[in-house]
Design brief:
It holds the Pfam family LIM_FHL2-3_N. The chain has 281 residues and is an alpha+beta fold. The protein contains 5 helices and 22 strands. The protein has a two-stranded antiparallel sheet with strand order 1-2. Strands 3-4 form a two-stranded antiparallel sheet. The radius of gyration is 46 Å and the shape is elongated.
Length: 281
């Protein structure tokens, strides 16, 4: 046989005619060379996984088919669900017994791969995490804890939340209390200009809330001197005389404009005068 007709192992050069061989990247190897060069070692028995065996792999680790077993009960994991814990492979039953959490409602094990809910260190089967009021699964919806129970938002609002006396809708966060009645912050408005009063100084008249500006414009006394409102709520000082009022800075002699605050004065019809100007009259 000529050299051009030979069919040899690429590594050891032994003839492969009539023998088993394995191809790798279009190159032929005898089984012995292939196993020495390329076979993976089994994680369980440490022996090479030869050409005559199935090579089962998980996360860059390899096993003979007969070695692919649960590390605790030794049952085969071939074509079965399994879980990994600290580099050990466990069947779902062993993993659940040793590591899975228990449902806070039914007290049964939450099996690996099943849907569950977790909140503040507690776990539930998804079908066991129920609204305390309507007894329907909460699932991925928002919920609110109250005492020892959990409530879906609609049930919490019906059972516990105050209702805004303006819009009649539930107040779930924050809110304002005025005259022992609850309001949303955005609903607590000046009766005059409809400006939001939450966090602002305000007053009331006949049980209606007013911002200081509206109250001053509607009800405050007017200064005789400048005709503008005098609002004691804003801290303004004023002088009152015979049912007339003046801002302190406006209480001055009508003739010479000297301030009359803390000084004697005279009246001439509707005018007020300092004593000097009054004597001249």
């Amino acid at each position: 046989m000529s050299s051009s007709e030979r069919f040899d192992c690429h590594y050891c050069k032994d003839s492969l005619l009539g023998k088993k061989y394995t191809m790798k990247e279009d190159t032929q190897y005898c089984t012995k060379c292939y196993e020495n060069l390329f076979a993976n070692c089994c994680e369980a028995c440490s022996l090479p996984i030869g050409c005559n065996f199935k090579d089962l792999s998980y996360k860059d680790h390899h096993w003979h088919e007969q070695c692919f077993k649960c590390a605790k009960c030794s049952r085969s994991l071939v074509e079965k669900a399994f879980a990994a814990k600290e580099d050990l492979l466990l069947c779902t039953e062993c993993y659940a017994h040793d590591y899975s959490s228990k449902c806070n409602t039914c007290k049964k094990t939450i099996m690996p791969g099943s849907r569950k809910m977790e909140y503040k260190g507690n776990s539930w089967h998804e079908t066991c995490f129920l609204c305390h009021r309507c007894q329907q699964p909460i699932g991925t919806k928002s919920f609110i804890p109250k005492d020892s129970g959990y409530f879906c938002v609609p049930c919490f609002e019906k059972q516990f939340a105050y209702q805004c006396c303006a819009c009649k809708k539930a107040i779930t966060t924050g809110g304002v209390t005025y005259q022992d009645k609850p309001w949303h912050r955005e609903c607590f408005l000046c009766i005059g200009c409809r400006k939001q009063l939450s966090g602002q100084r305000f007053t009331s008249r006949e049980n209606y809330p007013y911002c200081l500006e509206c109250f001053s414009n509607l009800y405050a006394k007017k200064c005789v001197g400048c005709t503008k409102s005098i609002s004691s709520l804003a801290g303004a000082k004023y002088i009152s005389f015979e049912e007339r009022q003046w801002h302190s800075e406006c209480f001055s002699c009508m003739q010479c404009s000297v301030s009359l605050v803390g000084r004697g004065f005279l009246t001439q019809r509707d005018d007020i005068l300092c004593t000097d100007c009054g004597r001249e009259k």
